[in-house]
Specification:
The chain has seven helices and seven strands. It is an alpha/beta fold and 224 residues long. The structure holds guanosine-5'-triphosphate (GTP) and magnesium ion.
């Protein structure tokens, strides 16, 4: 059962995401019963992209390190942070540990020719807009198209960040519904500052990478 669960997603023999199986397979005592359950592991590259200063670094830092910095230091090129997301599936005696390699791609557009090489091999993306700047939501369009051209039709979640800045919000729900519908990817709202919905978004993408729905979905609307 557990191997089948894994093979749905990554059993292509390409090296990335191969399950631990056989004699050396790690096993852990199930906390909820007297039985044992299998621990599967996989590594996935995901990209986080979007316009400058929308909060890509901040969202990743909130998820990977649980911290937030008011200062703004633009990201040059691309940088990578890691976090392992544990996924559990009801009724199955297995847990999947997804080692996420989270690539932040600079929003600065200085070296556009490099972008396809950053996207290559990505199995999912979080594309971020800023709740206080509607043009960053309009630009999601071009980020999605650029990403899909290089990475193919892999899961994408659109995120409108900075929902803690309620007074300055320039949020266009109709536009977001349109983009979401056009590209068939869900959109969520988050705040890296107070942490609202950030974990949920990464968890939702991780479940999508595993070909599954999360046990409980993230909130769609306002995140704070
Ligand atoms: N209030 C508020 N500020 C945020 C939030 N997320 C990020 N910021 C601030 O917005 C600014 C830009 O954040 P970054 O995370 O550096 O933005 P970025 O998208 O990585 O920018 P580039 O690397 O230049 O593409 C910083 O001053 C952050 O502190 C948020 O959820 N709420
Ligand atoms: Mg950055």
């Amino acid at each position: 059962m557990a191997a089948e669960l894994f093979l749905k997603d990554g059993g292509d023999g390409a090296g990335l995401g191969r399950p631990f199986e056989g004699k050396g397979a790690p096993r852990t005592l199930d906390r909820h019963s007297t039985g044992w359950y299998r621990v599967l592991e996989a590594t996935k590259k995901i990209c986080v992209l979007g316009d400058p200063a929308v909060g890509k670094t901040s969202v990743i830092r909130r998820y990977a390190l649980d911290c937030f910095d008011e200062g703004y230091l633009t990201t040059i090129g691309a940088r990578v942070l890691n976090r392992t997301q544990v996924l559990r599936f009801p009724g199955q005696s297995a847990e999947l540990r997804l080692h996420l390699k989270i690539w932040e791609i600079s929003g600065q557009n200085r070296h556009l020719e490099l972008y396809p090489s950053y996207y290559l091999g990505a199995e999912g993306a979080i594309i971020v807009g800023d709740a206080t700047r509607v043009e960053t939501q309009v630009n999601l369009w071009k980020w999605i198209e650029g990403f899909r051209a290089a990475a193919g039709r892999v899961p994408i979640i659109l995120v409108v960040n900075k929902t803690d800045l309620m007074d300055e919000t320039e949020f266009d729900l109709e536009l977001m519904d349109e983009i979401s519908h056009e590209f068939r990817c869900p959109f969520r709202m988050s705040s890296a500052r107070n942490g609202a919905n950030v974990d949920n978004v990464f968890r939702e993408l991780a479940y999508q990478l595993a070909g599954r729905k999360p046990l409980s979905g993230p909130r769609r609307g306002r995140a704070c």
